[in-house]
Amino acid sequence: MKRSLPEQLTQLFVVLTVCAGYGLLYALAFYRLVSISYFTLFLDGFIDAVFFMVLGVLLYKAIRYGNYAALEIYQRFINYLALGLLVVGVWIGLSLLLSYFMVEKENMKDLWAMIPMKALIGLLVYLFVVQLIHNRLGSQIEEQEDEEILPETQTKDEEVTEMIDRVVVKTGQKIHVINVVDIVYIQSDGDYVQIYTEQNHFLKEETMKYFEIHLPSATFVRVHRSYIVNVEKILRIELYEKKNQILTLTNGQKIKASASGYKLLREALNL
Asked: What is the pTM for the complete model shown?
């Protein structure tokens, strides 16, 4: 949803205030330790905060679209560690590059001496940002799950709609015919959907609602706002964080089922 102008200005003011606050604390922390002017340190810290804001946005997208919540604990640890090293490394690199043009050359040795402390600060900020991202994604998931439409709310016309037994997808000059029984799961992708089979996946311009209505409900269940799963392709169901479940599918993919989606899945599996 597009934000109004007052909301955008308020958000910009908050961002600038946070960056300025970080710049002040940064300057206070290092002013007596290095021979760099207080204003230069403040400006350096302010720009560092801006850099981390931008990296935070990219980090949010990586975590959100990387489906990190569905990964095993050890795999998540490895991914977060790699992301942390990348983010902190890029942040320090950008900071040093900018400082090279801001600070007098004889003071560069002070900047090099500050790198270990900057790395520690970057790591702490990274952990804080990751926690904020998780809290935000958790709130979004809860809101989405509250908006999920269960089959009981469908109209009579939808209930008697003819079921499809194949899906046709055109990619370039090729036309792929996918038998419904070969579909492992379907994932929402904006105005499109990704249709996954055992070996491939295909992008089709269609809505999740269409497939929810036209695929046989005994076999295909919308376990999440973003996923419709072929129950015959489920290998394992495991508990994950409170009421959520992780489904392991025959193609090796792991996806999360919401509380309401798991209720529908239990009904389809007669559990």
From this structure: 0.49
